[in-house]
Amino acid sequence: MHITRLSTHHFRNHRARDVTWSPHLNLITGPNGAGKTNLMDAVHYLCMSRSFVSSSDRYVVSEGESEFRIDGDFKGEIRSEFRVSCLYSRGEGKRIFVNDSPLDRISDLIGMVPVVVLSPEDRKLTAEGPSERRSFLDGLISQISSKYLHSLMKYRRIRKQRNRLLQEFEGSSQQLRSLLEPWDVQLVEEGSNIVARRYEVLSAFRQFLVDQFKALYEIDLQPDLTYQTFCEPGEDVAQIQQQYEKVLASSREKEFERGTTLVGPHRDEVVFYLGEMELRNYGSQGQHRLFSVALKLAQLFYYSNLLEDDPIMLLDDVFGNLDRQKTTILLDTLQKHPGQILITSASEAPFRELSATPGSELLWYRLEDGELIEK
Q: Which runs of E-coded beta strand occur in 76-184?
């Protein structure tokens, strides 16, 4: 899968921009603040319906404007050629179109154009709390499984309604138990599906992580991960449901006291290790950085192994923190991958010796003073 053309209107500092892309390697260099990341973010919108930089759509509208529009033309194996458009207007919200036809649900876009993003923010995946890793895991699976995405969305709705009942009900405990029962049935069903799928994907993903970390880091440390949830995880949904029901029942009184759902995949954790060392607590800055790079490369190759269409890879300002050896290894890995790669960098130095490999294409832009010029 690759994007052939991008058009933006009133999107951040790109009030009107048209960009054509190579199906393989694409570089955008230029000074900080020129808008390089914004172009990556526009592509991400067309793949995931949201920004990987901002928390809200309203923050990406150009100053003085009330709406933005992004259009992208794509080519792939499953869909030979198609167009995705994202329109946002303050007061009306966001709409997604495919070939000018509106999607009934914005979530239907997820997985249509698989994408992997590597940025300096990825250090949060290894250094911060469990929510960062749950978000990564949910994004990883949602792009390859619409069933998982729908289970995840349904689970969140169920938990929200269940929490409201726990917080607002003023009757007896027996009455509350009775009212919670239908929500509990749905919670267990969807939550168990989520746990089983997470376990299945992580079991396969582990080897991709090992391979990519070893390619980057030439020391005798074995990367690993463990999946921690409320039960003994596995792929047998029925067994997970049985355990879920028991743990949920045993936590009932605490839930009544705290007014919130205490058991479920919304509290899961993925723990990363280097050898016997838990990375989050004991890893050096360099180990955190390289582990996050390996995670995203593992996602790239996991998708490529699983899907008919290669994903698009976005690398936003990641080479400045890598030494020359790691830069060479990363670029060599990307050049050998057949999918589309989009790279931004403030410095041109890492790429001066970069050239297209046989059968591939390289397109290099310089963005400065509002002008996008092909080098």
A: 81-89, 93-98, 101-102, 115-118
In the chain, what percentage of residues exceed pLDDT 70? Answer: 98
Q: pTM score, two decimals? A: 0.94
Adjacent-strand bridge partners of 374: 365
Q: What's the pLDDT tens digit per position in 280-334?
A: 999 999 899 999 999 999 999 999 999 999 999 999 999 988 888 899 999 999 9
Residues in contact with 23: Cβ distance below 8 Å, sequence separation at least 6, in sequence order: 2, 4, 75, 340, 361
pLDDT, mean of residues 30-52:
96
Q: Under a CB-based contact definition with an 8 Å cutoff, are residues 303 and 295 in contact?
A: no
Sheet hosting strand 115-118, strand order edge to edge? 115-118, 312-316, 341-345, 25-29, 362-368, 371-374
In CATH, which of 3.30.300.20, 1.20.1050.90, 3.50.50.60, 3.40.50.11540 is domain 122-290? Answer: 1.20.1050.90
The domain segmentation of the chain, as residue ranges, is 1-114+307-375, 122-290
Domain 1-114+307-375: which CATH number of 3.20.20.140, 1.10.274.10, 3.40.50.300, 3.30.230.10: 3.40.50.300
Maximum Cα interatomic distance, the chain, rounded to a whole number of Å: 73
Q: In the β-sheet with 223-228, what is the strand arrangement from edge to edge? A: 223-228, 269-274, 277-278
Give the pLDDT score at 246.
Answer: 97
Alpha carbon of residue 9 to chain centroid: 25
